[in-house]
Specification:
This protein has 262 residues and is mainly α. The chain folds into 2 domains: 22-126, no CATH class; 128-262, no CATH class. It has helices at residues 4-20, 23-46, 52-62, 64-69, 74-93, 101-125, 130-155, 170-191, 197-224, 240-260; strands spanning 159-161, 165-169. The chain has a two-stranded antiparallel sheet. Strand 1 and strand 2 form a beta hairpin. The longest helix is centred in the last third of the chain and has 28 residues, at 197-224. The model has no long low-confidence stretch (mean pLDDT 86).
């Protein structure tokens, strides 16, 4: 119950935001989510040895693509500004350090991983029926996570990637794929009555795979930084990055599929 109740409340608030909230409210919340995710990322990279000011500055740099994604300039402009400011920060902060290349690479990845990828969720929200498509996307990632967990526990035998995430199994992936397609189909039938099913069903499978890649990528980050959870802000559910890791990969995939094909 300590884990289930907060999860249900979080899911209900997310659905209300997508279906009833305005674009500007969603945009503002995504900026806040990305900012907190940036704080978590810096904490993991520095193993909580950096000061608060440094965390705030770097997280502010990370979040710029999300901030500009709601403007005509788009996320690409924010990506450039973020990288430019990061370069200036590295040159200033590490001017007395012999080799700061590792820091530059870690934080440049943070700009892309958090800011640029998350900006696509804002871009989806601006599309026709964007809120409904985000519900379908959330159903895919939530369904695949739950399906993979329960199916993996019940019949999981074949390890998917033991060096990255020892508990994930191939059987769990199959269960997650089935659950993701089923749950997303239900919400698409409910919210997108004119949806092309020949588009939705294969896209749901592709997005499930993208979400799994996002989950494994965060596992690589946590393993590389010796971190169990990205944070503790969500009771029983870890940090913000632990909750949106699948969305960070599946979101851009859905956006470009909708723009180019859908």
């Amino acid at each position: 119950m300590a884990r289930t109740l907060p999860g249900l409340i979080l899911a209900a608030c997310w659905l209300l935001l997508l279906l009833k909230g305005s674009f500007f409210l969603f945009w503002g919340i995504m900026v806040g989510v990305a900012f907190v995710g940036g704080l978590e990322y810096v904490r993991m990279c520095t193993r909580n040895r950096s000061g608060l000011l440094r965390k705030l500055i770097l997280s502010g740099i990370f979040v710029l693509p999300v901030l500009t994604s709601g403007l005509k300039a788009g996320g690409g402009a924010g990506l450039f500004v973020s990288f430019f400011l990061l370069a200036c920060y590295i040159l200033f902060h590490f001017r007395l350090v012999a080799n700061s290349f590792d820091d530059l690479c870690r934080y440049a990845f943070g700009i892309f991983y958090i800011g640029f990828l998350a900006s696509h969720l804002v871009l989806i929200r601006q599309l026709p029926d964007g809120g409904a498509w985000l519900v379908v996307l959330s159903a895919i990632t939530a369904g695949s996570d739950s399906g993979a967990y329960y199916c993996g526990r019940a019949i999981g035998r074949t390890k998917l990637s033991p060096n990255i995430s020892p508990k994930k199994t191939v059987e769990g992936v199959v269960g997650g794929l089935a659950a993701g397609i089923a749950l997303s189909s239900f919400f698409a039938w409910l919210l997108l009555p004119t949806v092309n099913w020949l588009f939705l069903l294969p896209v749901a499978a592709v997005l499930t795979g993208a979400g799994i890649c996002g989950d494994l990528t965060e596992s690589v980050i946590k393993r590389g930084t010796d971190t169990k959870d990205s944070g503790t802000i969500l009771a029983g559910h870890g940090g913000v990055l632990d909750r949106i890791d699948s969305l960070l990969f599946a979101g851009p995939m859905l956006y470009y599929l909708l723009v180019l094909i859908g």
